[in-house]
């Protein structure tokens, strides 16, 4: 696998500062990054998740800049390609579209292969099949720090033998939102760098060579391995988005996500009057397994933004994994809601982390002076 990331890009801190930052972060957030929540603890979580309250009249300028029309155009472009399973021409065309749109922002875009046989932590006695997928990434520099936020979404779709699966909601909607967020941040960067990552091989696909079974989340596995190899100290937050285009959008309160960061998205939705998509009483669910690859390498500061019921209240929903996963089941309003909420939450989290970093730098200087 091509690592493509230097230690300088994934900035590390000296040990004294790192220890201080960790202590301050734990103090400020009131918990360790890896703590999971439970339904019984929702009230205490919401009461303690006071990162930086956002009022409806004070949302960031980036929120207003997010264009639902452009995001919808991206979703249309990806679904017009048709099915995008691993190794298909449709898969290549989707990657080419995303690359061209990112390059228009003036950022360097990188394609990098994930070799399943060398990624992850499989048993050495297991014979891994030859599977290779190609992710796409670009970095938008921050105004103050090269520590970074990662915005991650799949772009492929599942292959079915008896019908063409478009995957408008599952596989394209998250990519459309992330792409428009990238445009917004390229014009008005956050203090922290933002890495945009489009993942291949996320949807289930048949094992090659006639092997039994399916493979999935290969792109996520490869990204997790890449982060682990380069060092994760500069990764301040990773957001995984998928299935966010449903016309009847209801984002799940993911159990695996970092609970304080997760609740910041619900606070942003409340401030922006977008609580229909981010219900205050949203149930606690496991919203998927892709982001668990990042937990397994010790990266706990992750948030999964996923609607687990596509068409109906019961997961996975009537349209999930069917030929009805088409753009007419999606809505530009849903794309706009998720884009606005993500941008507002990132702004609030950036401000809070900035205060912690400045205080840590000042304290580190005092320690050095002695």
Description of the structure:
This protein is α/β, with parallel strands linked by helices and 370 residues long. The chain has one domain (15-120, 128-204, 213-369): Aminopeptidase. It is built from 10 helices and 10 strands. It has helices at residues 15-29, 42-48, 61-65, 68-81, 89-103, 168-187, 218-230, 259-271, 292-296, 332-369, and strands at 109-115, 132-140, 145-154, 192-199, 205-206, 214-215, 235-242, 253-254, 284-285, 302-306. Strand 8 (253-254), helix 8 and strand 9 form a beta-alpha-beta unit. Helix 4 (68-81) packs across helix 10 and helix 8 packs across helix 10. It is globular and about 65 Å long. It starts with 14 loop residues before the first helix and ends with a helix. Residues 1-57 have low confidence and may be disordered.
Total tally of structural domains: 1
At CATH level 3, the topology is: Aminopeptidase
CATH architectural group: 3-Layer(aba) Sandwich
Strand order in the sheet with the most strands? 1-2-4-3-7-10
Number of helices: 10
Q: Could you give the count of β-strands?
A: 10
CATH class: Alpha Beta
In angstroms, what separates the terminal alpha carbons? 45 Å
Q: The biggest beta sheet, please? A: 6 strands, mixed
Helical proportion, percent range: 25-40%
Summing up helix and strand content along with how strands pair, one would put the structural category as alpha/beta
Key phrases:
370 residues; alpha/beta; Aminopeptidase; 6-stranded mixed sheet; 10 helices
Task: Break the fold down into its secondary structure elements and pairings.
Elements: H1 15-29, H2 42-48, H3 61-65, H4 68-81, H5 89-103, E1 109-115, E2 132-140, E3 145-154, H6 168-187, E4 192-199, E5 205-206, E6 214-215, H7 218-230, E7 235-242, E8 253-254, H8 259-271, E9 284-285, H9 292-296, E10 302-306, H10 332-369
Parallel strand pairs: 3-4, 3-7, 7-10, 8-9
Antiparallel strand pairs: 1-2, 2-4, 5-6
């Amino acid at each position: 696998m091509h690592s493509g990331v230097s230690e300088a890009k994934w900035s590390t801190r000296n040990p004294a500062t790192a220890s201080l930052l960790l202590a301050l972060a734990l103090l400020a957030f009131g918990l360790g990054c890896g703590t999971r929540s439970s339904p019984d603890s929702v009230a205490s979580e919401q009461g303690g998740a006071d990162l930086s309250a956002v009022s409806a009249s004070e949302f960031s300028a980036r929120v207003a800049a997010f264009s639902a029309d452009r995001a919808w155009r991206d979703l249309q472009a990806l679904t017009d390609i048709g099915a995008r399973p691993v190794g298909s021409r449709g898969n290549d065309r989707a990657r080419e579209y995303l690359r061209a749109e990112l390059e228009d922002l003036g950022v360097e875009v990188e394609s990098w292969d994930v070799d399943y046989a060398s990624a992850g932590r499989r048993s050495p006695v297991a014979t891994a099949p030859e599977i290779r997928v190609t992710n796409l990434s670009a970095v938008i520099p921050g105004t103050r720090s090269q520590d970074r936020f990662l915005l991650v979404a799949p772009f492929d779709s599942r292959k079915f033998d008896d019908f063409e699966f478009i995957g408008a909601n599952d596989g394209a909607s998250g990519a459309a939102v992330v792409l428009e967020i990238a445009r917004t941040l390229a014009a008005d960067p956050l203090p922290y760098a933002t890495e945009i990552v489009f993942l291949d091989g996320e949807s289930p696909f048949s094992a090659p060579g006639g092997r039994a079974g399916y493979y999935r989340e290969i792109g996520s596995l490869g990204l997790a391995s890449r982060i682990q190899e380069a060092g994760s100290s500069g990764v301040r937050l990773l957001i995984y988005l998928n299935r966010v285009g449903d016309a009847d959008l209801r984002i799940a309160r993911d159990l695996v996500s970092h609970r304080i960061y997760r609740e910041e998205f619900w606070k942003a939705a409340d401030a922006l009057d977008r609580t229909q998509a981010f219900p205050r009483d949203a149930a606690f669910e496991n919203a998927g397994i892709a982001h668990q690859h990042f937990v397994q390498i010790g990266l706990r500061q992750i948030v999964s933004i996923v609607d687990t019921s596509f068409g109906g209240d019961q997961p996975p929903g009537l349209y999930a994994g069917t030929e009805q996963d088409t753009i007419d089941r999606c809505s530009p309003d849903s794309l706009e809601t998720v884009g606005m909420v993500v941008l507002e939450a990132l702004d609030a989290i950036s401000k809070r982390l900035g205060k912690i970093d400045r205080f840590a730098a000042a304290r580190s200087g005092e320690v050095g002076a002695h």
